[in-house]
Each structure stands twice: as C-alpha cells, then as structure tokens.
Amino acid sequence: MTTAPHTAALRVPLRLRALAALPFALAACTHVLLLAVWSDRLPDPLATHFSYGGEADGFTGRAAFTAVGAALLLTLGAGWTVLVRRGALWGAWLTAGLTGTLLVLVVHDNLDAADPARVVSPLSHLAVAAAAGAVLALAGHALSRLVPPEEHEGGPAVHPDAPRLDLGAGELAGWSRATASAPLTALGLLFLAGGAVAVLLGPWPLLLVALAVGVPGLALARIRVSVDRHGLTVRSTLAPRPRVHVPLDDITAADVRSVDALREFGGWGYRVRAHRSGVVLRSGEALVVRRGNGREFAVTVPDARTAAALLNTLVERRGRL
User: Fold this and answer.
1) What is the band of 108 on the pLDDT scale with cuts at 50, 70, 90?
2) Does the chain have fewer CB atoms within 10 Å around its N or its C terminus?
3) pLDDT tens digit string along 205-238?
4) How far are the Cα atoms of 141, 161, 173, 181, 247 from residue 169, in angstroms, in the given order?
5) SS3 for the chain, per residue?
6) How distant, in Å, are the alpha carbons of 4, 166, 187, 191 from that of 244?
C-alpha cells in the first residue's frame, strides 16, 4: 500500500514580510509626497505616456495619476509580501525601485511644463530606473541575510519510496554535474547575430531585444547543478548570473522524473508555470524538488537520481536535528 507524501507547511518570518513591504511603502509615500509638494509646479493633466522618441502621447489627471501610482505600488507590495521567500527578497526591492523611480521621473519631467503636450521623457530614463532598481536589489539581498530561514511545520515530507543515499550520521557529501543545451546555444547566438545586424541596419531598439534574449539564453546554455548541505544550486558556467538556489530548509522532498520541455514547460531555459518552475535544457531526466509552499522546481540533468537521493537524506537528517 502506497501512502501519500506528507506536505510540510512553510512559516515565513514576519520580519521577512515586513522587509518585502517596506520599499513599496517608501516608494508610494515618496510618489504622493512629491506630487503634493510640487503641485503648484505641475500641469493638470500630466504627460504620463511617451513614444519611442520621448514625445508625450498620453495624459492623466493629477489626482488620478497620484491614486493610480500609489495603488500600483501598494498592489505590487501586497503581492510580494504574500509570496516572498528569503532568497527572493532582492526581487521585491528591485521591483519597488524600478517602478518607483519611473513614477518619480514622470513627475520630474512634468515640472514647470506650461503645455503637457510638449513634455519630453528621454529613453535614458529606463536605464536610470534599471540602475536604481539594481541598487535596491543589492540592498534587499543584504537585508535578507538578517532574516532567519523559513521554518517548516510538521515532519519530513520525504515519501517512503523516494530514493535515498546511504550516508552515515557524521558523514558529509556533495554532488555536482555539468550539462549543456545545443538549442539554447544556437538560439542565443542567433539573437546576438540579429542584434549585430540591427546595429548596422536598424532599427536600433531591436538590439535591446536581441541582448535581452540572447545573453540570458547563452548564459543558461551550459549550467552546473550542485547538491550539498546548503541545498540545490543551479548556476551558469559561463557567467556569474543567472543563479538559482533552493535552500535545504525550503525543500521537503526530491525525486527524479522524465519531463517534456515543450508540453510541460513551453520551451527551454528558465521556465515558470502555475505550480512549478525550472531550468529546462532538454526533455528527459530531471531532478524535481518539492518546496515548502507546495511548488516544484525542476532541472534537467544527468544522474538526477543520485542528486535526489542525497537531497532526501539531507532533508531527513535536518528533520531529526
């Protein structure tokens, strides 16, 4: 008789949720405060949408812009507060920094404008917002180290039939394997070649698209998957990022499964679906870990059974501590 695996609930520290909400609250307060302080210097309506050339082509009343901007920030903040995990706090701060900076720049562009139709917002503002978001992301990552790991409620969730490694109580073990994807390599090179053509022949915005797709594609074309007492780590062997880390404290069980890249994940690379995510380089054997929130993370890698067995052993050992 096969018993259903026990699912452990994950308790997120209140401090972590507060830190996820903090940048959005600060950004919303800054947004509202600037509009109030500069109210006598701003037109009504404001220029709030701009063409690729930076010319104003959309307008919003001052009160409506204040309400919509604050609501956007608070809604994003609520979502991050509910869904945040310790390893993703930087994402909340990145989102708040990027969104908040864009709103502030729109207000700044409208300062002392006699005619909102003549307001100009240069494309370089996107780079400014991205830089601000990156700085705040670093701050969020640093703050995450002050938060204790999420705690699991309940016992180990490893199924009795799941693979395990014969590891003594005092023994340490690690597992690592590199793997590569020919389709991702080809697609990455193809997009970068298209970007080079865009530079020479235009239109130049296609270069941004080529870089946004080609560079991450090549970075994920060859990865190294590692398992140790800290959990599961998937990193590019060609660049420092992207890097995905699932802490051992966030893993309830691991298994090996055959996955279909197109049918289950919609393609190759880093994929996100409703109840699962993964780094998928091909169809076939994959290491699949179940996280404390019930979601699954999969990575296609050879010898996935050994990795799953080691993770299950480490999870059970953690449960006995």
Assistant:
1) very high
2) N
3) 566 666 666 677 677 778 888 888 888 988 887 7
4) 33, 20, 11, 37, 20
5) CCCCCCCCEEECCHHHHHHHHHHHHHHHHHHHHHHHHCHHHCCCCEEEEECCCCEEEEEECHHHHHHHHHHHHHHHHHHHHHHCCHHHHHHHHHHHHHHHHHHHHHHHHHCCCCCHHHCECCCHHHHHHHHHHHHHHHHHHHHHCCCCCCEEECCCCCCCCCCCCCCCCCCCCCEEEEEECHHHHHHHHHHHHHHHHHHHHCCCHHHHHHHHHHHHHHHCCEEEEEEECCEEEEEECCCCCCEEEEEHHHEEEEEEEEECHHHHHCCCEEEECCCEEEEECCCEEEEEEEECCCCEEEEECCCHHHHHHHHHHHHHHHHHC
6) 29, 27, 21, 24
Structure tokens at 81: 């507060």
Residue located via tokens 């096969």: 2
Mention every residue, 6+ apart, whose C-beta is less than 8 A from residue 164.
158, 309, 312, 313, 316
What does the buried/exposed string (b/e) look like for 121-138 if buried means 16 or more CB atoms within 10 Å of the residue's CB?
beeebeeebeebbeebbe
Q: Are 291 and 251 in contact (CB under 8 A)?
A: yes
Q: Report the distance separating Cα 99 and Cα 106, nearest Å.
A: 11
